[in-house]
Amino acid sequence: MNRKIYNFSAGPAILPQEVLEKAQRELLSFDGIGMSVMEISHRSKAFADVLERAESGIRDLLNVPHDYRVLFLQGGASLQFSMIPMNFLKARADYIVTGAWGNKAAKEARKTGPVNVIHSTEQSGFKTIPSQDEIRFSPDADYVHYCSNETIDGVEFNYDLEGGGIPVVCDASSNILSKPIDIEKYALIYAGAQKNIGPSGVTLVIIRDDMLGKVPEGQYSMLDYRAIAANDSMLNTPNTWGIYLVSLVCDWLGQKGGVAEIARLNARKAQILYDALDSSDGFYRGHADRDARSLMNVTFRLPSEDLETRFVAEATAAGFNGLKGHRSVGGIRASIYNAFPIEGVERLVEFMKEFNR
Ligand SMILES: Cc1ncc(COP(=O)(O)O)c(C=O)c1O
């Protein structure tokens, strides 16, 4: 079996080797029960324990306060783009747009009600992140939505937004669990699992209790956070296998020292790569402004599209996978999530120097 590939995929992305090995060992018989996790009832004691481990894993890693619920949903982060306005948009919602995903979220919300884009960096090409002081909320906003790390553009907030009384809703799909965050700043924070939490098909939603009381009467059950919370994420059959993998990823991250420790490693990995861009005499040009640079998705250009095509082809042949930028923006993107090893970054930098030469 050949796993000697450095996997820079933006998502679904690399999972920790130890997690895959454990899942492989337990594939046929989970915890000695003689059946796979995929083959047992979600109402069984064995699965109840898995769900409990996944939930407590997230709670411990992110220090989630007691007045928040930790939910595992389906439909990806994209369903949250719809569910959030369907549950909480009454008068108007504020959206901060710093990249492609924030844009999509705002577009989806407009189908439900008035959206005020209070800050957008689209005109300047999604290279920057506003400071807290630059943000002015609408006085009657039901919530403010932002994306803490724009996976396609490679820009990241390096602070938790303060809503000043307005509930803060955050898409943290591509940087959750990569560093400590202050959950208390958020009314709702969500993430598709397929970068730092587990496989695709699970969406993590952490929601403050008071938000559940705002869900409109008559909401469709599967879109109703209150009903989902009341049923402990099991209003219908959950993604049992995916949640099992989430529990293993949480165990793995806990053993690595948790989010504070992984944040140090993530910062080092990103530094190595950004240093390589900055010391290339302009051959590699980072997309994001320096103070907006994502530690998870490093986006850059080469002098021409032809060179970018050659770069990706030669990198792929040399065992570096997933470096092609998103189809909407082109260029190169190296995604270096929690499970991505530092030596992979070092090898890529060697390759980049050689390619430049
Ligand atoms: C920041 C962000 N938000 C939302 C999404 C959409 O996620 P999903 O495919 O789970 O709907 C992605 C996917 O990559 C993402 O990176």
Description:
The protein has ten helices and 14 strands. It is α/β, with parallel strands linked by helices. The chain has two domains: 231 residues, Type I PLP-dependent aspartate aminotransferase-like (Major domain) (Aspartate Aminotransferase, domain 2); 100 residues, Aspartate Aminotransferase, domain 1 (Alpha-Beta Complex). It has a seven-stranded mixed β-sheet, sandwiched between helices. Strands 11-12-14 form a three-stranded antiparallel β-sheet. The chain has a two-stranded parallel sheet with strand order 1-13. The two termini are 33 Å apart. The protein binds pyridoxal-5'-phosphate. Pyridoxal-5'-phosphate (PLP) binds next to helix 3.
CATH topology of the largest domain: Aspartate Aminotransferase, domain 2
Instruction: Give the overall average pLDDT.
Output: 97
Order of helices and strands: EHHEHEHEEEEEEEHHHHEEHEEH
Largest sheet: 7 strands, mixed
Question: Which stretches of 5+ consecutive residues score pLDDT under 50?
Answer: none
CATH class of the largest domain: Alpha Beta
In CATH, the architecture of the largest domain is 3-Layer(aba) Sandwich
Number of helical elements: 10
N-C termini distance: 33 Å
